[in-house]
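G., the chain you wanted modeled:
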Amino acid sequence: MHGETVVDPWHYLRDREHPETIPYLEAENRYAEAVTAAAKPLEDALYEEMVGRLQQTDTSAAWPRGGYEYYSRTEQGRQYRILCRRALGGTETEEILLDCNALAEGHSYFSLAFDQVSPDGKTLAWAVNTDGSEVYTLRFKDLTTGTLLPDAVPGVYYSAAWGDNGTFFYTVLNEAKRPWQVWRHVPGSGAPDALIFEEADGRFNVSIDRARTGRYLFLSCVSDTTTEVRYLETSNLDGAFQLLRERRQDVEYFVEHQADWFYIRTNEDGRNFRLLRLSCEDPAPAGWTEVIPHREEVTLEQVDGFENHLVVTERANGLKRLRIFDSRTGDEHFVSFDEPVYTLLTERNEEYSTTKFRFAYSSLIAPRAVYAYDMDTRERELKKQVEVLGGYDPANYVSERVFATAPDGVQVPISLVWRKGLERDGGNPLYLYGYGSYGIVTEPAFVPERVSLLDRGFVFAIAHIRGSGDLGRRWYEDGKLLKKRNSFDDFIACAEHLIALGYTSPNRLAVSGRSAGGLLMGAITNMRPELFQVVATHVPFVDVVNTMLDPTLPLTVIEYEEWGNPEERGFYDYMRSYAPYENVEAKAYPNIVVTAGLNDPRVPYWEPAKWVAKLRSLHTGDNVIVLKTNMGAGHGGPSGRYEKLRETAWEYAFVISRCA
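Predicted structure as tokens:
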């Protein structure tokens, strides 16, 4: 490639049918079990602590829709949710829509892509996968009789929507596992499905959504940098989807419907997005008017339309806020929050004619709470407070935000939490997490499992590095393509700053990331191996160059706009400069613990397997390198809630035994 000859002695691991591949992975699993055997009592204790904090039999906050309130619940000892509903304001008993535990019987893995009830409340559509490959089968249930319909549509993906009560739209995957087509299905009819749309450009995914108003379907074509939206009235499903505005490279726009208006959130003429309004009857671009202008310091992240209100979710200084517009009066106000570091997430808001907006709030020390906010009275009603058992008291912990200086002078935020009484003498173990890709925000939310680290003297920290969307669109763009190394420099600067402040020292510092965060872990481990005691990485994207050179793999073509196309010499050379697999050298590495999924469609199992093999061949120190491959799961790891806790306990035991 580009005049270079590359020798890859572990290339054979890409072939799942090669006689040495599965035995190799199984041998690695046996080695991992042997190496971590001494920490098994600690793992068991951690697991019991984590389970002990769960309200194992519990019910979610219910959300209203069409005369019912919907909710899910869990039962002690059972891995999966039970999806339910009951009539609003009545005394009717609970109706079980789906018992995921029953559906998962006989399978080592179980996942729902979606569950959607028809507008009239009479039919349930859902899609299930049982091997972690993220290729789902669509099924239907008649809720009036409880009968499972014979329809079974294989090969569907996450995006789907009801058109009306008898028509369902869904997306399917091509051979590269790209959602590229939208089909229409009539449940229970036996009629052949109709192809509605096909996207030929390999950079684009297609999705289908139903407006909260129920009046429109939106069909979107989305790449990493460009979008195009079509719309269709649900009263005319035999009609053709109409193009709202044709795609233009590097212009993104997203549509929300309210009354007679479409609201467009777009980064055209403003990379942090601005808000435009246009008439549903005459949506020509000439009639688009600006509602909220672009602001360099504020990112416009989401717009939700209701009968009399518009809710705009914004991010300023790395934190979300809610901006509420009254469509009747033109008045607006903000919803305020007190903590210096917190997480705000939109809940299920499925009713259009309501004054209540539902959101979830948490922080690094405050467990998740769900509120219904009255947009007229400005009062908050607590609908659900997640209970953390085992004596957890938020008053025993401290959270703050500090800033590290990157090599180019940029200030990088770090969110921190620890148990009170901590001395900043460099003697504390610290667990530093990072991601930094795709513009995804790493939210500083409460995770009950982390209490087991905090109560053992750990500081937990999140590095809000470039490549993420934590500080807006520019923050993302400055950590992708030919600026990707900024992500690695930022993370190293955060680690060094925490050491300089006395929170920890290199021999007590553990770092972690998953997926694209695994790329981060691989890169910084090659760059500064002496800075870390433990590197914990899950399904890590570490074989960057080889993967991006293979357009037949899932996600490769789609992600040219994130990483670059190595067929171009400039991108090839830049990728080669940081790609973890290519840059492993003969030197002492930290303790490294790696997980993979045999059926992972996003980061194939062979990436971590090859990386670990190369690390072992060149590692000159005494630290251990461990690979654990889940032989029946995919990118998300184990699917059951207890199984997930067991894997976390295993990782934490590894980290604690080497850092504490």
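Residues 56-98 form one domain.

Shout if anything looks off.
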